[in-house]
Amino acid sequence: MSVIERMLRRDDVPDDGEFVRLSPMRRRDLKAGVLEVERLAYPKPWSSGVFQSELEQVKSGSRHYLVARLGGRIVGHAGLWFAADEAHVTNVAVHPAARRRGIARTMMSALAEEALRRACVSWTLEVRVSSTGAQELYRSFGFVPAGVRQKYYENTEDAIVMWCHDIDSEEYRARLDALAAGGVM
Ligand SMILES: CC(C)(COP(=O)(O)OP(=O)(O)OC[C@H]1O[C@@H](n2cnc3c(N)ncnc32)[C@H](O)[C@@H]1OP(=O)(O)O)[C@@H](O)C(=O)NCCC(=O)NCCS
User: Ligand 1 centroid to 60 CA: how many Å?
Assistant: First the structure.
């Protein structure tokens, strides 16, 4: 079992606020914290309807969404959209009061494991040019810029398209394990 698999299976750890606990996103999580985190994270947050539509698509297997809790409180959420052997990161958001504690890294690690479980070989995302912190996070997961979508956000801000290939390789396994262990690669 890999380091990250061990980390994600810590169901025995008490929910004492020290550990980030991940679970699949449920409809009830929307009002319980997801919508607030979303509103605090983005200038154009997803509506409840958008989340509900995404969660509907979890049932058919084309989406995967999770929430992160600290001390029982929802502090983050993230998701993937699967298309053939590619996974597209649709959303990664953390409550401003809970940032820089590794919550996004933990959620990204879990998304990577899910993408591998679904036999994906690449993953991709779009990120705002101004979101330099998020770009740093994605670079640590091996994403590299592959292009720009002009005026992608609100018809104003450009998006950087980032890709990460060969996630089914031994090298990528080592990167994920190093990230889970708190190391850098
Ligand atoms: C981007 C975001 C998800 C990061 O969440 P987070 O839980 O604070 O991130 P983590 O603590 O897991 O950070 C992991 C690494 O990413 C990088 N990183 C994250 N935020 C950063 C920032 N503001 N500045 C520089 N690097 C940053 C760092 O390398 C960090 O490692 P370190 O803390 O050991 O230096 C969060 O800031 C957020 O919700 N932003 C608004 C929404 C958004 O832009 N989402 C991305 C959409 S594409």
Answer: 30
**Residue range 3-180 in CATH 3.20.20.370:** no
Cβ–Cβ under 8 Å, residues 84 and 92: no
- Closest by CA position to 108, among listed 83, 71, 145, 137: 137
Please give the structure tokens belonging to residue 163.
């890709």
Distance of CA 103 to the CA centre of its chain: 9
pLDDT tens for residues 32-59? 999 999 999 999 999 999 999 999 999 9
Which residue has a Cα nearest atom 3 of ligand 1? 93
| Ligand 1 near 131 CB (within 6 A) | yes
Distance CA(64)–CA(101), nearest Å, equals 23
Q: Where are the domains of the chain?
A: 3-180
